[in-house]
Amino acid sequence: MSIAIDFPFSDLIAGYVTSYNQSQDFFTIKTSDEREFKVKISPMAYAKLIQNFDEGYPDATGSMRSMLEVGRFLFVYGVFYPDSDFFDAKQIVFAGRKKTDFVFEKQNWWINQINALGKFYIKAQFGDGEFDYRKYRTNLSISGIQSDTNFRQETDTISRLVYGFATAFLMTGNDSFLKAAENGTEYLREHMKFEDLDEGIVYWYHGIDVNGDREEKIFASEFGDDYDAIPAYEQIYALAGPIQTYRCTGDPRIMADTEKTIKLFNEFFLDKGEHGSYFSHLDPIMLDPLSDTLGRNQGRKNWNSVGDHAPAYLINLWLATGKQEYADMLEDTFDTIAKRFPDFENSPFVQEKFYQDWTPDQTWGWQQNRGVVGHNYKIAWNLMRMQSLKPKEEYVELAKKIADLMNEHGSDRQRGGCYDVVERIVPEGEKYHRYVWHDRKPWWQQEQMILAYFILSGVLNDQDYHRLARESAAFYNAWFLDLEDGGIYFNVLANGIPFLAGGNERGKGSHSMSGYHSFELCYLAAVYTNLLVTKQPMDFYFKPIPGGFEDNILRVSPDILPPGSIKIGKVEIDGEPYSNFDAEALTVKLPKTDSRVKVKVTIVPV
After folding, report:
1. Percent of the chain with pLDDT over 90
2. Could you tell me which residues come within 8 angstroms of residue 191 by beta carbon, excluding any fewer than 6 positions away?
3. 344 secondary structure, DSSP code
4. pTM of the shown model
């Protein structure tokens, strides 16, 4: 017997207007899963448009009734009363001024957003002074205030912030962002890197504790899931920021560090036996993935150790170099994912943790037999990127299957967005996948959802995926932007209200959050929307080190997109027109100079 709801409660509905009754002042709205609700406009109801950072409040209260046109997408927050057939509307949020408008499809929406995020993190970490990473702190409060009790600097979170600054420069040309990225890359190299000259490898410390002029290096991870081990994902994400900086500058020192870190992966993390791919952890003494000291992480493989290479650094490394060895590594990564991760006979969610022989590990820690919704979307998104580099029917079919299954099993089709971690199996007699913690929706998983649907829409020219992309991007932009203090909320509840219970949820910086997912979303949502979906040009900025890039060739493709879908429209160097470029190959032949020049490249859809 199901529980009868006999008390009022607040909630959110997202959907499309199907009618408006002017005389009785109510409208009907149909959700993404085709359920219809009758909505009464309460006397004190108010309305606005989705609002970006640094914008004035876009009030729509005075015109909200005239905006209730059939087919318009909106959010309505209000109250369900058990004694009424109507949902009592308290707030309405429109996706755009016109019926068919979605504000985040404006050419500069995501550019403006990343500019605001970049300024927020510069102020939070460095104040008004120089970009001195001695001041960096992993933990930031909800308003961007540094922790005055925790002096830990984690390598991954610095690298992720460096990624954010480099990406913000790529999109805006603001030199302060590039300076912050270069200073951060240098700081990582000087303080977080260990180079083993005998083995010819580089690996990266978990972090350092800074106290005045003193610092204590932390070699093995102190994060609970990976305690006293070297996890692959920390080494992977240590490259995220430097490689994005390399795309802007061509700094050969970054490439040298990267090559030696990849050698670490291929010499020590790689399973060289019959099963292949990368182990998830090494013991910190012998660099052995099969050491007994690893405990529950002994001889394991997981999504992070296999798949995270691609989005974190490897795709960007290939974009910057065009080298076949990185294309081959990408192909092996996605072939492994396509072969090993699906488990559709048992669950709509992929498997994520494995023993050495690829037997699923359904007993590990908190994961057990549970699915992370965002990891499923992340696979779909990155398969579609790889499809444009090495087309394979199985890549597209798997991406579509995952995206369709997640729409049904991982997303919230009443309110928008996607959930966090759920039980992979629905027991007999139950209808819904149970939430592992609660109905929260993390910011990073919304990113994966948005990018998956936008790239599917753009590459396949599919209107259903475009609708889902719009719905997911609308939820993120309506509810995740902290318009008061700046930055992005870590979690919101199903109804869009920020979840601020404590710990990571109350912060804008933590072990899990820094300048990565929110910046990456701005970058790639802009790329997919402008260049594939709405067909609008975009500008990108570079500041190469003289002689840094091989043969003085600057590769400017913003992402792996379908061949022939974009080209260079024009190039400027230090503000002057420049003609030595190959429009179709997306390369610029840099002039030979003794000083750095600023390159502005306009990419146009074909």
Report:
1. 95
2. 133, 153, 208, 215, 217
3. T
4. 0.97
> Which structure tokens are listed for 48?
């606005």
In this structure, what token pair is assigned to residue 396? 């597209």
Give the burial class of 508: count Cβ atoms within 10 A of its Cβ; 0-12 exposed, 13-18 middle, 19 or more buried: buried
Which H/E stretch holds residue 218?
strand 214-218
Q: How far from 342 is each of 339, 355, 396, CA to CA, in Å?
A: 7, 15, 14
Q: What confidence score (pLDDT) does residue 128 get?
A: 85
Q: Which of 115, 158, 156 is nearest to 135 (CA)?
A: 158
pLDDT tens digits, one per residue of 70-81: 999 999 999 999
Token pair, residue 333, equals: 């990564």
Cα–Cα distance measured from residue 141 to residue 124, given in angstroms and rounded to the nearest whole number: 9
Written as one string, the DSSP assignment of 258-306 is HHHHHHHIIIIIB--SSS-SB-SEE-TTT--TT-GGGGGGTTEEEHHHH
Using one digit for the tens of pLDDT, what is the confidence trace for 462-491?
999 999 999 999 999 999 999 999 999 999
Whole-Å CA distances, 359 to 252, 351, 372: 41, 10, 18
The answer to whether 549 touches 580, Cβ cutoff 8 Å, is no
Contact 314, 329 (CB under 8 A): yes
**Residue 348, C-beta contacts closer than 8 angstroms, at least 6 positions apart:** 405, 406, 408, 409, 410, 424
Report the alpha-carbon distance of residue 561 to residue 528 in Å, rounded.
Answer: 9
pLDDT in tens, 576-588: 999 999 999 999 9
Residue 528: DSSP 8-state = I
CA distance 109 to 396: 29
Q: Is 65 helix (H, G, I), strand (E, B) or coil?
A: coil
Q: Two tokens at 135?
A: 């001041």
Q: Positive or negative, the Cα torsion across 281, 284, 285, 287?
A: positive
For residues 558 and 45, give the distance between their C-alpha atoms in angstroms, rounded to a whole number.
43
